[in-house]
Predict the structure.
Amino acid sequence: MTETLKIDPDEITFIEDVWAGGGNLGPSIEYFVKGLEVGNMVFMQYKTFHDGSREELDVKIIDVGIGLERIAWLYNGSSTSYSDTFKHALANLQPKLGVEIDWALWEKYGPYSSTLNIDETDDIEKTWSELAAKIGEPVDKVKEKIQIVKDMYIVLDHTRTILMAVSDGSLPSNVGGGSNIRNILRRVLSIIKKNDWWEKMGGMDGFLEIFEAHKLDLEGIYGKFPEYRSFGEIIRVEYDRWIHTDDV
């Protein structure tokens, strides 16, 4: 943090916490820079049981989690990590959709965006109003400018996940992990339909171009993707099943 990224130590905040999951439990340290959680370390110490009891683990490990994309985000000082990690995909999709990104608004909105966590607020509309007041903008403007871009980011995020999962051998289905692929693909298609984006992006051919753009963004990490001749057909079949769901 300090030697490689040259971050001022006074800008780093450490928070002590406890993490539990998968039957294990241990103290953790999370580290933040200007409100952004960059990573964490969980010191796995105990095995936990359903009755609430626990016992020391024979083998203790340190589970380290670091947000690779957050490092790029932090280093570049961008308003969002999407502009760094979806460079080609964003450049492919945004002009087609005609979605304008108000970067000045995003810079003001970003520090308060976590307050919109639907699991932690009882009144989301009140939270939107409070957020808008904090950044000095009309709530209607904030919602209009943020939500349309958020939808575009969801399309980019989910299509990348689909690319990776299907390229790795998974297939959309109604059960198991395959159901996750089908669900997020259908969420993408629903967002596209809601915003009337399908024709703007060029139909199925344009939709498949997003996956090709993701490959360019990921080449620096994975190298060139091997040819997957059935990929396009898999997406086409899933699209056809989605649009005919109500016919069954």
